[in-house]
Design a protein that fits this description.
With about 150 residues, the protein is mostly helical. It has one domain. It is about 65% helix and about 5% strand. It has a two-stranded antiparallel ribbon. The longest helix has 27 residues.
């Protein structure tokens, strides 16, 4: 969760972490990707993707040093793992929009309903743009290998 400024907009200051693991132990980057794809729109997700890796690695390095161990990951490895996990989480908000969209808005006015639909579609558009960018760019090897 991010600190809000005086206008109610999120800042880059992190005030809390929420454990989003779903009945399994897994990669922290799976948790970050789930949190960011489900709980933020494209603007905020893309913004936080520019800072969260450095902060995570800084915290992990500090924790490992307290145990007299070196951090086993580089920034590039953390980022690549996040983007791979992002691919696995990217379709959750899209499916959620399709399945629950009408039900969640059944009591809304037409004006409010239109605003919610616009926001959900923009979120999905940004996710799909980023999936395409990853599979034709830095993660193209996954697409070439698995045809995913």
């Amino acid at each position: 969760m991010w600190q809000l400024n005086e206008f109610g907009d999120p800042t880059t200051e992190i005030v809390a972490f929420v454990d989003w693991q779903i009945l399994h132990e897994g990669s922290p980057m799976a948790d970050f990707s789930r949190l960011l794809t489900i709980c933020t729109g494209g603007f905020n997700r893309r913004k936080f993707e520019t800072i969260v890796f450095d902060y995570y690695l800084e915290c992990l390095t500090k924790e490992m040093a307290e145990e007299r161990k070196s951090c086993p990951y580089t920034l590039e490895q953390v980022q690549e793992n996040y983007y791979i996990m992002f691919l696995t989480q990217a379709f959750v908000p899209i499916i959620g929009t399709v399945i629950t969209g009408d039900y969640l808005m059944k009591n809304d006015s037409e004006k409010l309903r239109k605003a919610k639909v616009d926001e959900m579609l923009l979120k999905c558009k940004h996710i799909l743009e980023d999936v395409d960018e990853l599979l034709t760019g830095k993660l193209s090897y996954l697409f070439e290998r698995f045809g995913v």
